[in-house]
């Protein structure tokens, strides 16, 4: 099955055995964006949304999701995260929230999926908390920005 690591010789999906890999400090950063109406943007930035602190709740949801990643993605390993951070940049020009999730651990396998899951759920939570004001919000551009640690080394995404 080529370079795919989650398949055995017969083409069956399998969990990768990482027992022989060295424990290393691993970090991953993922990002994504949600475009919202001007009304939603103002409610988020002015903390006037009816459901409360949108970004605060989304931060907690993203952290919780990163911690539960292995329960959501079938072949992912359970990762003992040493840290998970959700941060935001506000783009008034785009009427958008750009979310970032940074995850880290000391272990045998990386934390990219945890970062991607964390940022995805943070954005979905923003949608959920604001959908009464704008059902046309658009989530996009979810991707890995950077990862370090492990055998494959340091990766930084090049803009396409």
- Cα gyration radius (Å): 17 Å
Largest sheet: 5 strands, antiparallel
Decide which structural class fits the backbone: alpha+beta
Distance between the termini: 27 Å
Order of helices and strands: EHHHEEHEE
Task: Tell me the β content.
Answer: 25-35%
- Spatial order of strands in the largest sheet: 2-3-1-4-5
Q: Which overall shape is indicated by the principal axes computed on the Cα atoms?
A: elongated
Number of strands: 5
Low-confidence stretches: none
Number of helices: 4
Overall pLDDT: 94
Q: Residue share in helices? A: 25-40%
Quick summary:
This protein has helices at residues 38-45, 54-67, 69-72, 112-130, and strands at 24-35, 81-91, 96-107, 138-148, 155-156. The chain is α+β, with helices and mostly antiparallel strands. Strands 2-3-1-4-5 form a 5-stranded antiparallel beta sheet, with helices on one face.
Can you characterise this structure?
28% of the residues lie in helices and 30% in strands. It is an alpha+beta fold and 160 residues long. Helix 2 runs antiparallel to helix 4. The two termini are 27 Å apart. The chain has a five-stranded antiparallel β-sheet with strand order 2-3-1-4-5, covered by helices on one side. Strand 4 and strand 5 form a beta hairpin. The radius of gyration is 17 Å and the shape is elongated.
């Amino acid at each position: 099955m080529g370079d795919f690591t989650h398949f055995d010789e017969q083409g069956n999906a399998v969990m990768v055995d990482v027992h022989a890999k060295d424990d290393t400090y691993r970090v991953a950063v993922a990002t994504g964006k949600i475009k919202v109406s001007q009304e939603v943007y103002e409610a988020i930035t002015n903390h006037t949304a009816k459901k409360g602190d949108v970004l605060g709740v989304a931060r907690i949801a993203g952290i919780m999701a990163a911690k539960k990643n292995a329960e959501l993605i079938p072949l992912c390993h359970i990762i003992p995260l040493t840290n998970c951070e959700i941060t935001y940049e506000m783009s008034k020009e785009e009427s958008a929230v750009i979310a970032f999730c940074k995850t880290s651990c000391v272990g045998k396998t990386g934390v990219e999926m945890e970062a991607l899951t964390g940022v995805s759920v943070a954005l979905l939570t923003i949608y959920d908390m604001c959908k009464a004001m704008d059902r046309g919000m658009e989530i996009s551009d979810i991707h890995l920005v950077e990862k370090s640690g492990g055998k494959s080394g340091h990766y930084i995404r090049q803009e396409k």
